[in-house]
Amino acid sequence: MTDRLHGGTPLAEQIIAGHLTGDEGPVAPGRLVTVRPDRVYVQDGNAPTIARLYEQHGFTKVFDPERVSFVFDHSVLVADVDMADRMKEADRFAARLGVDVRARGQGISHVLAAEVGWFSPGALVLGSDSHTCVGGAFGALGLGMGASDIVAAMVTGTTWLRVPETVEVRFTGTPARATRPRDVLLTLLRDKGQEPFLYRSVEFTGEWARALSGDASASLASLGVELGAKCVFVPDEQGAIPTGTAAGLTRVDFDISGLQPTVALPHLPARTVPLDEAAGTVISYVFVGSCTNSRLEDIAEAAAVVRGHRVRPGVQFVVTPGSNAVYRDALRAGYIDTLMTAGAVVTPAGCGACVGTQGPLPARGENVLSTMNRNFRGRMGNPEADIYLSSPVVAAATALSGVIPRVEDLP
């Protein structure tokens, strides 16, 4: 984050103040304001809905074709005719508008947004996907919005919002060696619930948060919406804290000393338990990917676990890099070869199996262990499968044994 974003004012309020459409007076929590976003991006899954809204209202253009992007990430390998038709409709719609298009296989919108610079310090970015909150790992105010609000922003170049209150989550202590940011976030959700964070801007602080790598920060930020937050912010690699001790700032202290790796049980992320409580659960499908854990660091960790070993017979182990750049970097580093040698199936970049609009789908009655952000019933396309959530380290270890391991069994 740049120096101009530091100081006593909460970061969300600073960014909003810098994007007001006019002189609307001081920005304060609870006020309704109109702002100009720097970027609006649409994911393929709801592009057809947006196209129909355009048609219903007679819209034909966007406010700036260079600042509106379509990203084809949810359905890269489509095996359903109806979904294929929807993707073709989205293709034609994007072509008519003349907007920037990121084609199938380039990657997940939120991963690409960081790589190409849409998420930059002080930027205000709107996405038609709830996990646009990933932007907070890069100093950007990333806001996920529904189709109607996205259409309005695409046409007018503006949007309205209520300025959120800010809550600081101050982490203290150091978690266990194998614990990852997602374990910390989902434990926070389990222990505190959503109430302290609903429609608030959450700023993570503390030594542990400041020490996170860029990939780890993005993993933490991607789960902000599971807290119910409007947006989240993570300290940058220099350890800058946006607010510090801003006057009147609500603070939640959360001690993570010795926190163990976790697993979220079906069918809610908040049903998170310490790893050992889920150990022994038989798993036949393991998925490493999604905007939460598909970056280079995640793939490197999975490869390190399986190196020199083989995936257990009867276990399907699927790895989906978050972007083409991540895929290429992983290839150059030898991670992809390691994973494939161990028996993993590595797919083109994108959302992969996360939302169930492409394969591989889980079978009826199958237990799945996934690194994605949500495990709602039917999330991967089959409501008769049970989905557990974990970090890439736990997921890869599970692929080797066919059961969720104990902490002592992790490498």
TrEMBL record:
Keyword Transmembrane helix recorded: no
Needed co-factor(s): [4Fe-4S] cluster
Listed GO MF terms: 3-isopropylmalate dehydratase activity
EC number: 4.2.1.33
One Pfam family recorded for the sequence: Aconitase
UniProt-listed PROSITE patterns: ACONITASE_1, ACONITASE_2
Gene3D superfamilies documented for this protein: Aconitase, domain 3
Record keywords, A-Z: Iron, Iron-sulfur, Lyase, Metal-binding
Family: Belongs to the aconitase/IPM isomerase family.
Protein name: Aconitase/3-isopropylmalate dehydratase large subunit family protein
Naturally occurring in which organism (per UniProt): Streptomyces chrestomyceticus
